[in-house]
Amino acid sequence: MDHIESRAMAGKTLFDKVWQVHEICQNNEGQSLLWVDRHLAHEGSFHAFNKLAERDLPVRHPECTTGVADHYVPTISRTLAAVQPKVRHVIRQLIDNTQRHGVSLIGLDDPRQGIVHVVGPEQGLTQPGLLMVCGDSHTSTHGALGALAFGIGASEVAHVLATQTLWQDKPRQMRISIEGQLAPGVTAKDIALSWIARLGADAARGYAIEYAGSVIRDLSVEARLTLCNMSIEGGGRCGMIAPDEKTIDYVKGRAFAPQGDQLEQAVEYWQSLFSDADAQFDLEITLNADDIAPTVTWGVSPEEALPIDGRVPDPAQASSPGKALQLQDSLDYMGLQAGQKLTQIRVDKVFIGSCTNARMEDLRAAADVLRGKRCKVPGFVSPGSTLVKVQAEAEGLDKIFMSAGLEWRESGCSMCVGMNGDLMASGERCASTTNRNFKGRQGPGSRTHLMSPAMVAAAALTGHLTDIRDLSE
Ligand SMILES: CC(C)[C@H](C(=O)O)[C@@H](O)C(=O)O
Ligand code: SF4
Q1: Is 134 annotated as a binding residue?
Q2: Which of these, 103, 164, 181, 192, has the minimum number of CB atoms within 10 Å of its CB?
Q3: Which CATH superfamily, name and number, covers 310-471?
Q4: First and final C-alpha spacing in the chain
């Protein structure tokens, strides 16, 4: 029996199950036409709306799209007047496009506003078994609840707006199982950085990832969102986790979640969404929780990450001349010396925010480290959503951050990408809870080190990258 035959006879994966119910037909090239349950649109959707306008097409199912303002919103105020003049039109376009097509908008001054990948789960727009898309690579986040969710390009967004469907090649499937128990101080962010560092930023290219194993089952829903968020940084098309009781409890009662009989039916369906015991994956990876330490990036790709007690790599010891050049280039950009201890790297700023790590548990973890202490470096905290901000204030976290010397800002993508003007200066180094450390990501010439919220807080206190395990001893 060849591989394809044996696959067809084997059980189904979580991914197969969700894909199958959304597949309308296949074309001669083997691509599938998929029904899209929910489409989320941030400011970048103007490209797609322009394509629609060029052909004078209406939005086919306006009720299936939700607009959210996040990338360009100011974090100092909630008014359009506070938006940087040169980007104001981008937010204006989101307002106009959604209004024109009868699409609901969670805009700048909406109490539900936030980063699209925080708002979706928070509002119950994200549910197990749904097929969700957004013109944004971190759409993989939503897979944490068992949705099949992935980022798409502008022409695909236009196709979804015009038809509520999308042509896709079925990706190969890979399962990353993490077994054992995470040590204190090790979080979902460390799992993400650690698997990407070991396997490479390209390792999951062309694959849909399912995360499984005892560690994943033990993770909170918020931590699962962090992990799935970074699937794309390892090249994955999407990241999924089978829904369980935690997922169901999380979704129940949210604004867009089903209610009453519909909820009962939905829950019954959600409980069928797991990979069958005999399901086959194209690639299986198993990692042991004991091998995952608090991890930080030292370079310019999320794969350039190491356990915090390590040292900056030495190009002289690289596996090939090409690799040596690449390492040297990263060291030069980051202003680091080969062999330097990671804990000796001094930072100028910290940033706690983004769709990766700015939910309640993240803010609580950072605040726990900062409570009653004073930071050595400045920085800011931008909650993942306005509702997270309100909740954090109710818990007094804003006061902890401010007394520690950090700025407490409004919600948005902010310094994750700086499109709203929250930028670092050239040469400045930031300890950041975000997901990308590409050259210039937080501003031209800026240097980013990715890590968990508690680790960012620890760096804020000491002024250099710090092992959270040493602080808590
Ligand atoms: C601007 C947007 C399209 C982009 C993405 O696709 O991810 C951004 O959110 C990012 O994180 O780089
Ligand atoms: S917070 Fe950062 S990663 Fe997330 S959507 Fe915004 S820019 Fe992209």
Answers
A1: no
A2: 181
A3: Aconitase, domain 3 (3.30.499.10)
A4: 57
The Å distance, Cα 229 to ligand 1 centre, comes to 12
Closest-lying ligand to the alpha carbon of 135? 1
* CA quadruple 48, 434, 364, 463: dihedral sign: negative
The ipTM is 0.98
Task: Write the pLDDT tens digit of every residue in 383-398.
Answer: 999 999 999 999 999 9
Does residue 136 have its Cβ closer than 6 Å to ligand 2?
Answer: yes
Q: Break the chain into its structural domains and give their ranges.
A: 3-283, 310-471
Amino acid at position 135, single letter:
G
Q: Are 152 and 135 in contact (CB under 8 A)?
A: yes
User: How far, in Å, is the centroid of ligand 2 from the Cα of 146?
Assistant: 21
Domain spanning 3-283 has what CATH number? 3.30.499.10
